[in-house]
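In this section we walk through a basic example: taking a raw amino acid sequence and producing a predicted 3D structure, encoded as discrete structure tokens. The instruction is simple. Fold the sequence below.
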Amino acid sequence: MRKIPTLFLRDPDDMRRVLREVNPAAAWVLDGEARATRKFDGTCVMLDSDERWWARREVKPAKTSPPNYRPVQTDPATGKTVGWEPVEQSSFAKAHGQALAASLGGAFTAGTYELCGPSVNRNPEGYGKHVLVPHGLFLLGDIPLDYDGLRGYLAELAYEGIVWHHPDGRMAKLKRRDFPPSECREDPVVTAAPS
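The resulting token sequence is shown next.
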């Protein structure tokens, strides 16, 4: 799990927002080789090839990493390190256990998932119970690939944003809140999610 680049460069004066300039690390999206998928607003978890679950964890500079932490990448600008900790020791252990129980023994394959539900990030997805949503599953149809078109498209979404997937594994993202407030609705329109 590496930090996913945003499609447009961040505004150095307000890193919460994007500029009109395409991020060179995500320029491949404009080549038409990417699949656009729905971005869910929860927390990332991973099932590894040994069938062990991990939770995404960010560790700030000068903070001690949790036990059994597996660092993946450090952001040179902020000094924050992202990595994985065993899900059972994470703050999402209970929610994850409930999501597994709700799956009624459903088979999970190695990969990453978004853990969503009532006790995750104030439940912006509106789920009635905790669920594990496989990343890259919900494909989007034709979407614009320019700043103004994406700004308008995202303003109408009832969910967080878009993640593009390249066949070689690269990903890029764009969230509704990446645009300046005057350009895109800040408040999500939450529709009823499956229970």
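Looking at the output, two observations stand out. Residues 1-39+139-186 form one domain. Confidence is low (pLDDT under 50) at residues 184-195. In the next section we compare this with other chains.
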